[in-house]
Amino acid sequence: MTNKTPKITALRPLVLADKRRVSLEMLVENLPTTTANVLLMPDMFESAQAGPPAKLDRSAPSPYPNIELSILDSRRQPVARLFIIEHKEPQTALTLHLRAPQPDESYTARAEMTYNDDVLDLVEVPFTLNE
User: Which residue from 29, 32, 78, 82 has the highest number of Cβ atoms inside 10 Å of its Cβ?
Assistant: First the structure.
């Protein structure tokens, strides 16, 4: 991980015209840079005659956090969710599908960022399908 803890700076639910899909736009900052994994990469400039590439330590933990995006109903039960493993993008927009949307229901868009077993950040935004 980087010196600064990654965090979710914005989460915006956008209800699509069919009222069955919700696009979640998320902004994240302080993600590790791509150079964080340079030591794990084989030397691309080494000649092919130098022999096989060195064995990589696959047991080294990834520097990237995981994210769970979900939509909760008014009873705090998940009605849609997805997982992003080793999240690397500062800006993301993903669409979640509601199986049985309720027009008068109050929903909550939720983003939870974790690293190993620790919760780094949690953001919740209420919305309705009529917005």
Answer: 32
Which helix H or strand E contains 123, and what residues bound it? strand 118-128
In a domain, 72, yes or no: yes
Q: Structural domain tally of the chain?
A: 1
- Indicate the SS3 state at residue 38: helix
Q: Are 66 and 115 in contact (CB under 8 A)?
A: yes
Tell me the chain's radius of gyration from C-alpha atoms: 19
In a domain, 120, yes or no: yes
pLDDT at 53: 58
- Pairing relationship of beta strands 118-128 and 106-115 according to DSSP bridges: antiparallel
Query: 38 pLDDT band (50/70/90 cuts)?
Result: very low
Query: How far apart are alpha carbons 110 and 8 in whole angstroms?
Result: 11
List the one residue out of 77, 50, 62 whose CA is nearest residue 115.
62
| Predicted TM-score (pTM) of this structure | 0.80
Output the pLDDT for position 119. Answer: 98
The domain spanning residue 91 has which CATH number?
A: 2.60.40.10
| Mean pLDDT on 98-119 | 97
Residue 100, in any domain of the structure:
yes
